[in-house]
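I am writing to request your help with a piece of structural work I have in hand. I set the record out below, with my sincere thanks for your time.
___
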Amino acid sequence: MSEASSVHRRLGATDMTLFQRAHDILAAKTNKALDAAEQPDEMLDLSYEQMLDQLTKVRQALVTVAASRKQIELQEQQLQHSADHLEEQAKAALGLGKEDLAREALQRKAAAQTQIDGMESQHQQLNEEQEKLEQTLAALQERVNQFRTQKETLKAQYTAANAEASVNESVAGISSTLGDSGAALQRAQDKIANMQARAGALDELLQSGVLEDVGGDTDDIQKELDEAGSSADVDRELATLKAQIGPASPTPELPAADR
């Protein structure tokens, strides 16, 4: 298999693999399934560098083939020049009547022509190799140009997708925070309402007298009112007893001990 055909086939397969991998990785990143160790933008730049390296190798191969072809051409020219010179020498020898010398010159010319004929097939093969490499180089150069444009487009899409994902995550975090804040606010409002209701109920009970304010002492007025109430009760009970026993009788003396 020729060098140009092998290089062309390897480059074509590698190029298709790089493009497919770039698209697959971008899709995976968009779906948040990309491995964290591999970033699409870095992978695309690496693939582009690999393609440039392949482009350089194809150019080097083309230079090598072209140099070999040129060397064959120079050898052919030298041999052809030698064959032409030997033919002139054979003619000169015959002109001098030296047939043996003329025959020797013609034999050498024939050997040179044999080498020329052998080199012609090599020359033709190198020409074909050079043409294939030139076609491969042109196709690869076009792919590199296309990949460079697509690479920047894919990187822009990745950046946009990454930014959108970050925004969505931020929004989700804000929503969660707002939900927690709302719940905390509602709990605080409920607690305040319960405290206000309890304070109102206690105030009503204190005002109605059901509960006594144990925080302070009874004032003097209240004591006098309590004592007046007690005296009135005693007077009423005494009047009731007098009515029951009739007119007053001498008051019995109390025992000496009681006096």
